[in-house]
Design a protein that fits this description.
The chain has 377 residues and is an alpha/beta fold. The protein has helices at residues 20-32, 42-61, 76-87, 102-111, 134-141, 161-171, 243-258, 260-263, 267-280, 305-314, 334-338, 343-346, 360-376, and strands at residues 70-73, 94-96, 117-119, 122-123, 128-129, 145-147, 175-178, 196-200, 211-214, 283-285, 295-299, 349-353.
């Protein structure tokens, strides 16, 4: 088997290397189908057909009935911003979790008054929204919309988005799910129950700057045009489509959906965690909870996380401090606050996130290097 060139890369939740299938799709499309899909000659028509094939394929994978509900975007930030903007306005209110990605959280804080935005009760032991309290919370706050992510980018904790989607249906309010960390890693089943779904290609091996937004049925571009000034994407997003990027995104997604059954047990990550707990004395965060199979977050036994990160980087390993690297009293990580970590422990947190081809040996090599660094610091 060919050696994995990314064996020491453990920051897949931040971004992924372009998958071979995506690279091949990108290059061939950029070379052969570079025409503007809106132009009128035959080659442009072929590009348009290819674009619509991608839309159908994504709708199919997500089990969305009408491909016209799919809008290709410049990533999840753009899509999430647009959804929050659409859900805001006079007389509107929103319920979110306390661990949303900043591209949801910041527009919510800007576009909704304090009296019209509410944070769902959170259970720091499971790292997720406390589902048992959601029905009562929705009764009490009576919001006009709800937005909850599928899985958290820092901890990997899976959120009860399916159940919240059903509750929103009962309340007849729109539900937005930021599925950027879910799509490509977890089964897509059930996502079509959400009214708005957002995702990002570079989180599953596609190119950066490409993503998607799935809209509810019968929505018109009034109030929800991501960009204006052109008819592209059925009026929802003006601007010449990045066909090569979109085709590459679909190639990466198709590949990951096929590999669904083989890699997603989390067993290699679990073996890694056992190793760093026993050998290094790391304190694992959310070990026995429902998490993405690729993510591990832990508190190091001593010294600042940046010191560990630098030493690991010198050994070729790429890891992350989550957003805790800038943690301090002025700029604390909201996720870690929600998790109940104090400032001192936040400064000792590392997050590692593997990929689809990260092997048991790769995980163990990282554990070995963490043990080595622990002996040096
Ligand atoms: N939502 C979540 C949960 C993410 O992890 C990210 C990326 O970090 C985003 C949204 C933003 O995605 P993009 O980089 O495509 O704008």
């Amino acid at each position: 088997m060919a050696e994995n060139p990314h064996a020491k890369y453990f920051d897949y939740n931040a971004t992924c290397p372009l998958s071979p299938a995506a690279k091949e799709a990108w290059l061939s499309t950029a070379e052969d189908q570079w025409q503007n899909p809106s132009s009128l000659y035959r080659e442009a028509g072929m590009a348009r057909l290819r674009l619509e094939d991608c839309r159908e394929e994504l709708a199919d994978l997500l089990d969305v009935d009408d491909p016209e509900r799919v809008v290709f975007t410049g990533g999840a930030t753009e899509a999430n911003n647009a959804v929050v903007r659409y859900l805001s306005g006079e007389g509107r209110s929103i319920v979110c979790s306390s661990i949303e990605h900043p591209c949801v959280q910041v527009p919510v804080e800007i576009l909704f008054e304090e009296s019209t935005r509410f944070e769902l009760p959170f259970d720091s032991l499971s790292g997720s929204v406390d589902l048992t309290r959601v029905p009562e919370f929705l009764e009490k706050t009576n919001p006009t919309s709800v937005s909850v992510m599928a899985a958290n980018n820092e901890t990997g904790a899976i959120q009860p988005w399916q159940e919240i989607a059903s509750l929103c249906k009962e309340h007849k309010i729109p539900f937005h799910c930021d599925a950027a960390q879910w799509v490509g890693k977890m089964p897509l089943t059930g996502l079509s129950e959400c009214d708005f779904i957002t995702g990002s290609a570079h989180k599953f091996g596609g190119p950066k700057g490409v993503g998607f937004l799935v809209l509810p049925e019968n929505l018109t571009p009034d109030g929800l045009a991501l960009q204006i000034g052109g008819p592209q994407e059925n009026g929802f997003r003006a601007g010449t489509e990045d066909l090569a990027g979109i085709v590459a995104m679909m190639a990466a997604l198709a590949e990951n959906v096929e590999s669904e059954q083989t890699v997603r047990t989390g067993a290699d990550r679990d073996a890694f965690e056992k190793e760093i707990e026993e050998r290094v004395g790391c304190e694992l965060i959310l070990r026995d909870c429902e998490r993405l199979w690729n993510t591990s977050m832990f508190v190091l036994p001593h010294s600042k996380n940046l010191k560990w990160l630098t030493r690991l980087s010198q050994r070729g390993f790429s890891v992350s401090t989550g957003s805790a690297c800038s943690a301090g009293k002025e700029n604390p990580s909201r996720v870690m606050i929600a998790m109940g970590l104090d400032y001192e422990r936040m400064g000792r947190v590392l997050r590692v996130s593997g990929g689809w081809k990260t092997s048991r040996e790769d995980w163990m090599a990282l554990a070995g290097s963490i043990a080595e660094v622990g002996g040096e610091l």
